[in-house]
Amino acid sequence: MSTVIYPSPIFGPVKSRRLGISLGINLMPADGKVCTFDCVYCECGFNAERRPALRRPARCEVSDALEQTLKAMGEAGELPDVLTFAGNGEPTAHPLFADIIADTLRLRDKYCPKAKVSVLSNATMLGREDVFKALLSVDNNIQKLDTVSAEYINSIDRPQSSSYNVDEVVEQLKAFGGKVIIQTLFMRGEADGVPADNTGEEYVEPWLKALRYIAPREVMVYTIDRETPAKGLLKASPEELDAICARVQALGIKCSASY
User: At 68, is the secondary structure helix, strand, or coil?
Assistant: First the structure.
């Protein structure tokens, strides 16, 4: 099994399919994965197989490393389009996430004011008030919603807390008042014998209904791009993604598809 473990606290820059030239900010340990989901398609592998020995980076480590990197990129004339919180797990699970966001916005304004700050999140920590407020302060608040089927989420996204409730997550996404981007991964096949196809109408139609209710600024649909830890998963086709994208656009919501 080939999986990706990112350096911490800074990695890249990398060319993102959705965001442009992205400088990554990884708030998880550099030697493993810590996540509130354990998705069968995660490019970082399964949680149990990637347990880290190192700790999460401290707030000062993140800000110092980011400042040094932005200085170097500025001197080279290669500033990023976006500073993206992603990496080896759920960034909002860092206990000082809100403070780190404040530091990042300050450094962005100082060194690369044209760059956007993005957070790629699985929406599991939206019940924390400090996290919710911090997400409102970034340019691209990108939250995962692969489906509104609790059964599918439990078998494919695999929340690590028994208190996860997708209906509550939908309400929390609605509470952003439109300042949120929904990202959804569509795929076919199975995960080690468990059906994983969420491209059918039984999944797409309720998801569209939730989008209408949430009224996000934008929706990003995509499919698997790298080797997955579970076997049997297949990419959704460009035609399938385009058809789903068109249905989102018909709701009056901006939508893009990445293949």
Answer: helix
H-only helix segments in 137-200: 150-152, 166-174
pLDDT in tens, 158-196: 999 999 999 999 999 999 999 999 999 999 999 989 999
Q: What is the DSSP string of 88-113?
A: SB-GGGSTTHHHHHHHHHHHHHHH-T
Residue numbers in the chain where pLDDT is lower than 70:
1-2, 17-19
Q: How far apart are CA 192 and CA 189, in angstroms?
A: 9
Contact between 16 and 257 under an 8 Å Cβ cutoff? The reply is no
- 211: nearest Cα among 180, 248, 175: 248
Residue 207: phi, psi to the nearest 5? Answer: -65, -40
Dist CA 84 CA 77 (whole Å): 19
Cβ-contact 184, 219 below 8 angstroms: yes
The answer to whether 25 and 86 have CB atoms below 8 angstroms apart is yes
Question: Which CA distances in Å does 97 have to 103, 117, 217?
Answer: 10, 14, 23
Amino acid at 224: I
Q: Report residue 251 CA to chain centroid gap.
A: 23
